[in-house]
Write a structure and sequence with these properties.
3 copies of one chain form a homotrimer. By secondary structure, the first copy, chain A, is of the alpha+beta class. Chain A has one domain: YjbQ-like (Jelly Rolls, Sandwich), CATH 2.60.120. Chain A is 27% helix and 37% strand. The first copy, chain A, is built from 4 helices and 8 strands. In chain A, the strands form 2 sheets. Chain A has a 5-stranded antiparallel sheet, covered by helices on one side. A 3-stranded antiparallel sheet of chain A has the order 2-7-4. The N and C termini of chain A lie close together (4 Å).
Chain lengths: 139, 139, 139
């Protein structure tokens, strides 16, 4: 059993950018030479989130639309009143979806469905440089 | 320390079927002979999700109702326009709740509350054969 | 590699109390003398949840407000009709956010962002004594 840490770094385009990191996670896990285990994918930050989705152009519109119905930018946010950074709705969405995703791997293969990709959701209102942590535990 | 993989296979009845998999997870963990660790429960697929709930008839109505308010089937989804499978709202709900749940076990007992069950949520619009992965890590 | 279990116990003030447990998690992880790994934070119970947030007074109002829009107390819940405990909306919110959060640690430091805190959300309608489990796995 071993713990191996890897990081992904990329620039996002701004609000509602959805980045497919599946291939990067696969490469990271394969690079460890571990056969079986889990990878915990984590964003250190409170305006981004991790989940899985079928990465096709329709859902890249539908999913942000649904998040906007939950927490529309147009509402009043106490966060914005205090800090004036205009991203109160970003924080709310990020806390709802969560900063962490754990995916098993078996025989050196991530246990994803055929139409299931791992994505980072940029929920902040501006382009950000994001550093994502992969904590890989296995044997 | 060891990593042990188990799978659960079952047929769902279709949209908003909520399946209590608690006993199956308990049996799987006990079968490993590991005393302490975590089990990561994962659905390989983008129209199902995992969470916990008090598994009683009222909430089996209330929880799907709340998900429908977030992402009603009656809205327009770009996914459906492109793929014509009528499950755009299913994908949105699944990405929101997430495909993964990690539960600790201590002294061979899952750390659940008395009124807390582990459930698989079928969010797709039709009956599906589901294979759920349990990645158990412990000692 | 080792698995070490710790618990946090505290009293909540009631509905929409958001408790910052970051320092307690840091102390627990440091107390293990493990350098690298993950901590799974879990609430045994179906009316509380775990996530991260920027812990500042504005968001402590905004986030509960958003959850109330998803699952308002004022709606009819089948759960309440059957059990008369008035917390159907609490259960729905808890299942949506989830009972579990996994955070990596590297060189004995939790991988959190500067403005990101780990929080327990009390979603039940009354003050509760909560026991949170920390399952720490690492080397």
């Amino acid at each position: 059993m071993a713990v191996i840490t890897k990081t992904l770094v990329f620039q996002t385009k701004g609000e509602e950018d959805i980045i497919d990191i599946t291939d990067d996670v696969i490469k990271a896990v394969n690079g460890t030479m571990l056969d079986n285990g889990i990878v915990t994918i984590f964003v250190p930050g409170s305006t981004g989130a991790l989940t899985t989705i079928e990465y096709e152009p329709g859902l890249l519109i539908d999913f942000p639309n649904s998040l906007d119905r939950i927490s529309p930018r147009s509402l009043h946010y106490e966060h914005d009143k205090r800090w004036h950074d205009g991203n109160g709705h970003s924080h709310v969405k990020a806390s709802l979806i969560g900063p962490s995703l754990t995916v098993p791997f078996v025989d050196r293969t991530l246990s994803l469905g055929t139409w299931q990709q791992i994505v980072f959701l940029e929920l902040d209102v501006r382009s950000r440089r994001r550093k994502i942590l992969l904590q890989i535990i296995g044997e």
